[in-house]
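BUG-270 | component: ligand-complex export | severity: low

The export step for coenzyme A jobs runs without errors, but we want the raw record kept on the ticket for reference. Input record follows.
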Amino acid sequence: MQKVTLHIAYGAGTLAELAAGAALLDADEQARAARFRRETDRMLYCAAHVLLRQALSQQAEPAPAAWRFGQSPRGRPEYDAGICPGSPRLRFNLTHTPGRVCCALTRQLPVGVDAECRRGLRDARALAQRFFAADEAAAIAAARLAGSAAEALTFQSIWTLKEAYVKALGLGLSMGLDRFAFRLTGGAPAQIRLHQGPDAAHPAAHWRCVLLHLDGGRCTLAAAVPAPKGARFRVLLHGGDAAPEPMLAGATAETVLLPAQRIGPPSEGL
Ligand SMILES: CC(C)(COP(=O)(O)OP(=O)(O)OC[C@H]1O[C@@H](n2cnc3c(N)ncnc32)[C@H](O)[C@@H]1OP(=O)(O)O)[C@@H](O)C(=O)NCCC(=O)NCCS
């Protein structure tokens, strides 16, 4: 059983507090942070990278400021293996969207995470028709019968799952988004199935995903991991006045929601 820890930080106070720890970032990160034109983008970037460093240090020896990062050939961020030679290797991915940042951690298996906030429906329809698999575009069109809110939520859920999957594979825009498809089925919690996938190393049936609807459904957050023996998702919430509401969760995943104000010593290893 693969353990996946998701740290979600949200709320202006929490994000500002994390961003205030930007001295932990290395020279590359600080240079990137300085290049953002908008202060809100700079703040989100800093908050995400401080959160990531703290989360990694919760699971391994190096202190938050000691982590050094590089990239896979396709641009996926990884830490420099020399800094932490222990095995099995920690894997991570992060996402930022207005109002929240999230990082996902696993051991050995790659993980992808994505968060999206609601956007215009006209945009959504056009994107789905142009880029999604036919089954997914049909599911979004079917959801339209239940109203525009259902349509928007279905679109955003599929989109978020697709991005989490692409990020777990370590691919960027190079991946054709119509080459794989997610199926959301009704019920509580809804089932999430990746029913076709182009990744020969990890067949569709091995993927475990979780989908959370946060902030009253305005924000969707998904994580994906290729775990043939199943996955357990631990969701740690940092800050904010109200707890996010998970309305959907992958039926194949055991999902535990834990409130946590700060990243402290690990209560459970990965
Ligand atoms: C790389 C990509 C996945 C980032 O997604 P995004 O929604 O723009 O941004 P997110 O906040 O979710 O994620 C950004 C983080 O992903 C990570 N990332 C960057 N390249 C990555 C890659 N190749 N694989 C996995 N993770 C990657 C980085 O940590 C980055 O944060 P950082 O720049 O602060 O270090 C995106 O640029 C991309 O290529 N998307 C393809 C999917 C697509 O086309 N979607 C359109 C509608 S479905």
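Assignee comment: Attached the raw record above. Residues 2-12+88-259 form a domain with the Ribosomal Protein L22; Chain A fold (CATH 3.90.470.20).
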